[in-house]
Write a structure and sequence with these properties.
single chain; 210 residues; alpha+beta; hypothetical protein yedk fold; globular
Length: 210
């Protein structure tokens, strides 16, 4: 699972590189991010333009209602900060978002097993995500949330992850465009994007002691 990532990003560079048209955030994406925190994400708006937004990490599907097991939204979201790429097209929590609401989450590195993993070419990581819009029945509360998609770990990350998983990293501009494309809705058309990022293009270092 991916449960911590870091971002130290310049918003201007991010907007230029990812061709973002609308910025709905304030300040630069900077700091350590954990489940249930607000994290930066890029998605398409209704006009098909890329926008930079803040989403709560832990996906809350549009159909969720309080119940005996999850009395609060956060109780549900604690279980949905990651979505397995192998089953997101089938699971009720994720399948509609997978078809219609995909996003990209920018990061500098991600944490696993006491290590920070990053790209050797110094490019920031573009993590594949899904997002959702939830509104309470009375219309008084809305939550926009997201999850990070995971895949099998590559040979570098698997050493440190007990379940041998890692986030899906979108390799380049073409991969990002395809992931965000509203025209691609079947898993088969996106499957090649959800493969482990090559280990020889990543490195790692010990995370600083807290």
């Amino acid at each position: 699972m991916c449960h911590t990532f870091n971002a130290s990003l310049n918003t201007t560079d991010l907007i230029d590189w990812l061709e973002i048209v609308i910025n709905r955030t304030q300040g630069d994406p900077h700091g350590s991010f954990f489940p249930l925190s607000s994290i930066p994400a890029i998605r398409l708006n209704r006009s098909g333009e890329r926008e930079l937004v803040s989403l709560q990490w832990g996906l809350l599907p549009f159909w969720w209602k309080p119940n005996a097991r999850q009395k609060t939204a956060k109780a549900f979201q604690r279980m949905t900060f990651n979505a397995r790429s192998e089953t997101i097209h089938e699971k009720p929590t994720y399948r509609e978002a997978f078809k219609r609401r995909r996003c990209v989450i920018p990061a500098t590195n991600f944490y696993e097993g006491g290590q920070l993993f990053y790209r050797t070419d110094a490019e920031f990581l573009c993590l594949a995500g899904l997002w959702e819009h939830w509104q309470s029945p009375d219309g008084n509360e809305t939550i926009e949330s997201c999850t990070i998609v995971t895949t099998d770990a590559n040979s570098l990350v698997e050493i440190y992850h007990p379940k041998k998983r890692m986030p899906v990293i979108l390799e380049d501009q073409n991969a990002i465009s395809r992931w965000l494309s509203p025209d691609l809705v079947e898993r088969e058309s996106l499957e090649n994007l959800m493969q482990p990022f090559p280990a020889d293009r990543m490195s790692h270092e010990r995370a600083p002691e807290k």
